[in-house]
């Protein structure tokens, strides 16, 4: 197995708050890695550091052996793309134009508008948005906006895709469709994926391995079944109520 990402003793402080504390793990090429943890556990901050949006206060993140720069455009050129928990497309621009922004500024760095357009037409077809291509992004439903967010990330030609709660707020059939879509794009684009998802059952279903964060620290990592049966995880995260509900 080839190591794709190495997170080495990474800490991030915001003033007096330590959002992520001394977290280390490796990720392998082709893996789907779940990030699990209660609200405020540090998941999004860790994502932001891997995607170059936020610099670690200490520690190191290596992607294919290279330090990830604390600049999202440069991280994108290395081949890392993320989606955001709160989806904010440019509302006045069309769905196609929103996607083209990614193609023009991502790792592929398409300089040519027509080429960017062709790439995005293909990607929007893949994510099931070709019928809405010329509509304003503001007209999309939440499920549509989440698909556009995935399309925008894909248009940068990533090798590592960070998905931040792309399933939150979707109904059961939309979740199933989105899961099928994620698996399809993973295979077609040879992606490795890190996913944050609050619905445990879904995270368990999707992930090859799960890293559990608790109050900024790594509590454990393991296969979904190892994580799901670990007493520390049950105590810290699942709680009695959730265990019964799962
Ligand atoms: N920019 C910031 N400035 C100050 N504090 C921050 C900032 N970003 C995150 N924090 C704090 O760091 C901690 C971890 O937050 P983070 O958003 O990474 O957690 P999370 O696990 O993603 O939570 P959620 O599931 O609610 O999204 C929280 O206490 C949060 O308030």
Automatic annotation (TrEMBL):
Q: Which domain of life is it from?
A: Bacteria
Tell me which residues make up the ABC transporter domain. 5-240
Q: Which SUPFAM superfamilies match?
A: P-loop containing nucleoside triphosphate hydrolases
**Record flagged with keyword tRNA processing:** no
One of the record's GO molecular function terms: ATP binding
UniProt keyword list: ATP-binding, Cell membrane, Membrane, Nucleotide-binding, Transport
Task: Name the Gene3D superfamilies for this protein.
Answer: P-loop containing nucleotide triphosphate hydrolases
Entries under PANTHER family matching the protein: AMINO ACID ABC TRANSPORTER ATP-BINDING PROTEIN, CONSERVED COMPONENT OF ABC TRANSPORTER FOR NATURAL AMINO ACIDS-RELATED
This chain's protein is named: ABC transporter ATP-binding protein
